[in-house]
Amino acid sequence: MAAPPPCSEERRENPITELTSYDELLVELDRIKRVSAGRIAVETIGQSSRGRDMFVATVGSGPKVVLIAAEIHGNEKTGPDAVLELLDYLGTSDSSRAKQVRDQLTVVAMPKINPDGSALDRRGNDMTWQEVQARLPQLLNAQPAWNYYTDTRQGDDYSQRPGFDINRDYNPNLDYQPQDFPGASDQPGWFVSPETQAVRDVYRSLQAEFGAVDTYIDLHHQGACYTVAGTDRYVTMSLSGKFVTDPATPAGAEYADFADTYRPEYSQRLNVAAYNALQVAAIQNPDFGNITLYPQDIDLPCTGLGSFQLNGSGAVLFEVRGQTQTLGQQHREMLTQAVYIGLDGILSSIASGQVNQLDPAAYDRIPLTDRGQRTTTDVTDFEF
Ligand SMILES: [Zn+2]
């Protein structure tokens, strides 16, 4: 096997102007709402730590809810672009495929759930521990959360503007009241950020209205230099449907309360639907074939995926190649397209009912990721 072409995880100053900024998102959501002639509703779901409005866009009137979240890490920017493209399609297309999705599903998209981090083009949000303590007096003597950044991460200096990795701020107990700090990566988070509170509240209101959130999809980026195991091809995107230890196993005993709602096989089927759609697209562009399984030996109840999966949603992680500090907007079109194709594959498969015919064992046949090119030990560079 030939060596892959050179690839570096070193931070570079890359342009990102082709990727949708927060201000452009406002314009684009407004445009999509108008051209959809009433099919797309856009609502404000709260404000970020720095007062930016957060949005949810809804399309479809079906009984099954698919909730899509993008850019919880502000340097992971293909998600919003793919979501906007998807909304545009679902809001305007008269194809039978789009109609079936609208009839069978209610698609709820949160295109930029960390707008402050997005504006700073960094992983963490822009909220201090002191602000958290001021809002939650019971934390006055608590140690700062383990996921509170005050140093340098992924080349970004947080010393002057500290912030949280808010994708460690979720708790499977959606009623949780913050305590138990500083916590750890394999422990639940706290809903201390207004951003995760807003997502949690959307999830809960959908549960109340529809009985359940059928599917939750979270859009991320990962390292730039991973290869498809056994090949010299760089990974375009990794997928996963596993985020916590199975509550039905002894090792997952701490999640026993969720044993009845956890549906690992459904998550596997959803991932297979995305994988299959990308393999079909690979006939046109081989890059879409370079899809792998994200490492499965993780236990992250503090993530949106871990928490919502325990609450009964089928869950899918997309991990696109390269965050902005390494790739910037390089390969933007192809990578955004890969996300779009994966999302469309999942929605079509649920809407047609085909997802139930898929073999969950096919999930285990998705190629593994070779992380051999890893060049730094900062784990935040590599985790979703
Ligand atoms: Zn991420």
TrEMBL record:
Keyword Zinc: yes
A Gene Ontology molecular function term of the record: zinc ion binding
GO terms, biological process: proteolysis
The Peptidase M14 domain, residue ranges: 18-309
Cross-referenced InterPro entries: Peptidase_M14
Required cofactor names: Zn(2+)
Superkingdom field: Bacteria
Parts of the chain that traverse the membrane: none
Pfam families in alphabetical order: Peptidase_M14
Protein's UniProt name: Peptidase M14 domain-containing protein
